[in-house]
Amino acid sequence: MAKQNVDGVIEAVRYAPDKLISLVRVYLRRGPTYADFVLMTREALVEQLQSGKHFYTGNRKPFLASTFFLNQKLSLFSENGDVYIGVKDTNSRQDDPELAPLF
């Protein structure tokens, strides 16, 4: 199995009324391990994804500190100059509503 290049794992999201992500709770990779979770704004997440960072949805394995179950890789999709975040191109004018659990 090939090693995955993971820069962060998104555990939960918060959506704004316009159905775009406003905040994500993410564990950022720091060398061989992960830092405690941080809250990242949509703008910061889009900037990270545009710079080539790899973010996945997932959750922590119980009792195994910096070990995660990885689900799906996040991608950016453009439509009419607007950028949307998701795991698949839904051709909708919102971020993927099934990205991760809400917080």
The largest sheet, given as strand count, sense and whether it forms a barrel, is: 5 strands, mixed
What is the count of helical runs? 1
What strand line-up does the widest sheet have?
3-2-1-4-5
The total strand number stands at 7
Average pLDDT number = 88
* SSE order, one letter for each helix or strand: EEEHEEEE
Estimated share of beta-strand residues: over 45%
Specify the overall morphology: globular
If you compute it from the alpha carbons, what radius of gyration comes out, rounded to the nearest whole angstrom? 13 Å
Number of domains: 1
Helix/sheet category: mainly beta
Q: Helix proportion of residues, in percent?
A: under 10%
Our measurement of the CA-to-CA distance between the termini, rounded to an integer number of angstroms, reads 33 Å
Low-confidence stretches: none
Overall description:
This protein has a five-stranded mixed β-sheet. It has one domain. The radius of gyration is 13 Å and the shape is globular. The mean pLDDT is 88. Strand 2 and strand 3 form a beta hairpin. It has one helix spanning 42-50, and strands at residues 8-15, 21-30, 33-41, 55-60, 68-73, 75-79, 82-86. The protein has one helix and seven strands; from the N terminus they run E-E-E-H-E-E-E-E. The protein is mainly beta and 103 residues long. 9% of the residues lie in helices and 48% in strands. The longest helix is centred in the middle third of the chain and has 9 residues, at 42-50.
